[in-house]
Specification:
By secondary structure, the protein is an alpha/beta fold. The chain has one domain (2-316): Alpha-Beta Barrel (TIM Barrel). The protein has 9 helices and 10 strands. The strands form 2 sheets. The protein has an 8-stranded parallel barrel with strand order 1-2-3-4-7-8-9-10, surrounded by 5 helices. A two-stranded antiparallel ribbon has the order 5-6.
């Protein structure tokens, strides 16, 4: 099981010195990967609407201070040497398909093949309307088509594509990504469309457990979600075990209420020993990667917690 951490590219810790320090020291600690999130613009974040917290409020203290994801990843690639870099997740409709495919291929080349392309369709309508041309309601169809276009551009010497939202012919995209046939695709999202997308094109399914509309915050709920993924993968004509499972943890320990709405214990609540047990249980359930948000008020506090967590939890598994 791989263990990663979220590298803040928003709020107070998005200061360049802090981002660089956290990335470099996290790599030195032995974390397998780091993640960066994707927003281009945001509405008034004081208005509830965030789908991954119980209150609907953003977790970060100042999330409107934010670096663009792919440029931030390129910068961090230059400041690290071997830790993998995960887009968590790239909101696929934010960028034209050919441009995004080129940027991602360049990132994979410049990082020496360390890119993981986490993808999602997006959830923030005001941002979508400001950034993207197709309507918000069509974001799932746009995402599916763009991902298909990415794979053509990354793998074919003479790429051709004729879709509803993007078309190209008679072009060359070089250099191709270092990773063959292309960088891993981790499909974010918890609902039916995301599961079907993961089953069709994903290297892994990449849910967050705390989505209030599709909760995966207890072991029975997550196991049920994995069973749905396996069924969808078989229906897509792939081996049921061919899609890995990566899991995002936004909060843990005392910050997580002990019981969920199904009456079961909330995953990653309680003591360090409880969390060690969760990691063992998730590994047994088929989870192949877990990343954790260690958000703290400053870089020193975050790094201290990352070191403590490694000793108290990760080294126990």
């Amino acid at each position: 099981m791989q263990i990663g951490f979220n590298l803040p590219n928003s709020g107070p810790l998005s200061a360049i010195a802090d981002m660089t320090r956290i990335a470099a020291e996290g790599e030195a600690m032995g974390f397998d990967y780091l993640t960066l999130t994707d927003h281009v613009v945001l509405p008034d974040t004081k208005v509830p609407g965030y789908p991954y917290s119980e209150s609907g409020a953003f977790y970060e203290e100042a999330p409107i201070e934010r670096h663009e994801q792919l440029i931030g990843m390129a910068y961090i690639a230059a400041k690290t040497s071997h830790i993998r870099l995960v887009a968590a997740v790239l909101v696929v409709p934010h960028r034209p398909a050919v441009l995004a495919a080129k940027m991602l291929a360049t990132l994979d080349v410049l990082s020496g093949g360390r890119l993981v392309v986490g993808i999602g369709a997006g959830w923030l309508e005001k941002e979508f309307d400001a950034v993207v041309t197709p309507p918000f309601a069509e974001r799932g169809a746009v995402t599916d088509e763009y991902i298909d276009a990415f794979r053509v551009l990354w793998t074919e010497a003479k790429p051709r594509f004729a879709g509803r939202y993007t078309k190209f012919d008679g072009i060359v995209l070089e250099p191709k990504p270092v990773q063959r046939p292309h960088p891993p695709i981790w499909v974010g999202g918890e609902g039916g469309p995301a599961l079907r997308r993961a089953a069709r094109v994903g290297t892994a399914w990449y849910p967050i457990g705390s989505n209030n509309r599709h909760l995966l915050d207890t072991l029975p709920r997550l196991r049920a979600g994995i069973a749905r993924l396996r069924k969808a993968t078989a229906e897509a004509g792939r081996g049921p075990q061919s899609v890995g499972i990566s899991y995002r943890v936004k909060r843990y320990g005392a910050a997580v209420p002990p019981h969920a709405s199904d009456g079961e214990r909330r995953l990653f609540s309680g003591s360090d020993a409880d969390i060690v047990g969760d990691l063992h249980a998730l590994r047994d359930a088929g989870v192949t990667a877990i990343d954790i948000d260690f958000g703290r008020p400053d870089a020193a506090a975050m790094l201290t917690e990352m070191r403590r967590f490694r000793r108290a939890v990760i080294e126990k598994i």
